[in-house]
Amino acid sequence: PSLTMGSDSYGECASTNMEVFADSMDVDTYQQEAGLSTCGSQYESATGFAFAHPPPQDQQNNAKGSCDASSCSTSSFVSAIQDGDANMEPQQFPATPTKMPASSEPTNGFLTPQPEYYDTCNHKLYPPHPHTPWPNITTQLKVLDLRGSQRLTDRGLLQLGDLNALEVAKLDNCHSIQGRGLLVLSNSSHLHTLSLANCRRITDEAIVNISHLFSITALTLDGCRCLTDRSLAAISDLCQLQKLDLSQCDLITNSGLNFLRDLQYLEELSLGWCRNVSDDGIKILASQPMRCESLKILRIARCQISDEGIESLGKLTNLRELNLNGCSNVSSAALGNTLQRLPKLEVLDASYCPGILAKFRIFGFLNCVTLASAIPTCRTLRTF
After folding, report:
1. Burial class, 309, CB count within 10 angstroms (exposed 0-12 / middle 13-18 / buried 19+)
2. How many CA atoms lie within 13 A of 124 on its CB side?
3. At 182, is the secondary structure helix, strand, or coil?
4. Which of 112, 211, 254, 255 can pair with 281 through a Cys bridge, CB separation 3.0 to 4.6 Å?
């Protein structure tokens, strides 16, 4: 039996499988060797089917000269039609063309990507079939906790893809993160808590990369020793920020605290072990607008604070908690005068402050309280 197919059937069956035989197409070689013109003949749609041998010689002779136009044929037929091949047994063509297996569609509804293919008849390159990409599970993630992932790098963070629904991100002790990796949070418009504690290699670039996330209300940068005043300038854009931890950020200076002026909702501020923050920085902080009403917790342990700076804290009338651990230059008299102007104070840590006398009485501060000396054994006052 011979194989004959019109042009309509060619477009239906052969187009989707053209790429399988595109590499073996050699129209000129086949016509020269076989002397055939195949347009409108049984060879017209050969590229779409799994042929191994041509039709008998008598059918080839009938097909010669039937059409002057060139058509699609495969160079694999050249060796099959040459005379003298005694080792090849004749093989009959099927009456019905055999199509190449079509790509199966997964049961989950997502199409598998199709390769592009080349139509040698029309000399056109067709694009792959459209398909729907697989969903990314991170798009629905709300809490990301990677604390202690010391080998996690910026490149690894960027592999997470879109984190559009993220609300909490904890990256504490990820020592290999520097800054560029936080670009993965660029579209996290619902993020309200970000913790980068002890990320020792974090740079100002990281803070700049998240400074547009106005939804952030709590930011922890404890132990990020590479941050400078440039980071504070970027943080000033986080207008909804309520909690800011800058403990052990040694490169932050007094002038950098000026950038916190626009954080009107700031309730908790930690500046412990910031050794470049002194009395001038406390004065700047206490004189900022809305600071006396909003700030409730202030931690300035081990800062270079003296009596001058302590007296400035008297403006923060809404203060509930004050940590002066290790402020060795603070005297008992200056502290007593300041505490009398802080009627809402509930927690005071004055441990390791040798300038404070062993006992003195403060009238008007929660009725009458005896404040013990902050000697090295223990001295933390908690009154509720």
Report:
1. buried
2. 6
3. helix
4. 254
Contacts of 151 (CB under 8 A, 6+ apart): 176
pLDDT band at 368 (very low <50, low <70, confident <90, very high): very low
Q: What is the pLDDT of residues 281-297, one digit of tens each?
A: 999 999 999 999 999 99
pLDDT at 372: 41
Q: Which two tokens stand for residue 40?
A: 């409108």
Average pLDDT, the chain: 74
Residue 366's closest CA among 382, 350, 343?
A: 343
Let me know: does 35 contact 63? Beta carbons within 8 Å: no
Q: How many CA atoms lie within 13 A of 118 on its CB side?
A: 8
Kindly report the pTM of this predicted structure: 0.62
Instruction: Enumerate residues 6+ apart whose C-beta is below 8 A from 96.
Output: none
Question: Cα separation of 306 and 300, whole Å?
Answer: 12
Q: Which two tokens stand for residue 321?
A: 């908690």
Are 225 and 247 contacting, i.e. CB atoms less than 8 angstroms apart?
no
Q: What pLDDT is stored for residue 312 in this prediction?
A: 94
SS3 137: helix
- Inter-residue contact 202 to 224 (CB < 8 Å): yes
68-104 per-position pLDDT tens digit:
444 444 444 444 445 444 444 555 544 444 444 444 4
State how far Cα 103 lies from the chain centre: 34
- Give the pLDDT confidence of 33-62 residue by residue, as tens digits: 555 544 444 444 444 444 444 555 555 555
The values of phi and psi at residue 297, to 5°, are -130, 125
- pLDDT at residue 275 greater than cutoff 70: yes
* Angle, CA of 366, 368 and 372, to the nearest 5°: 100
Does the pLDDT value for residue 301 go beyond 50?
yes
Q: Which residue has the tokens 């002790």?
A: 173
Residue 214 structure tokens? 């106005």
Other C-beta atoms lying within 10 Å of the C-beta of residue 379: 19
DSSP sequence for 253-294:
-TGGGGGGGG-TT--EEE-TT-TT-BHHHHHHHHTSTTHHHH
Q: What sign has the CA pseudo-torsion 74, 79, 82, 83?
A: negative
The residues facing 360 across adjacent strands are 371
Q: What is the spatial distance between Cα 253 and Cα 228, in angstroms, rounded to a whole number?
A: 8
Helix (H) or strand (E) holding 10: helix 7-13
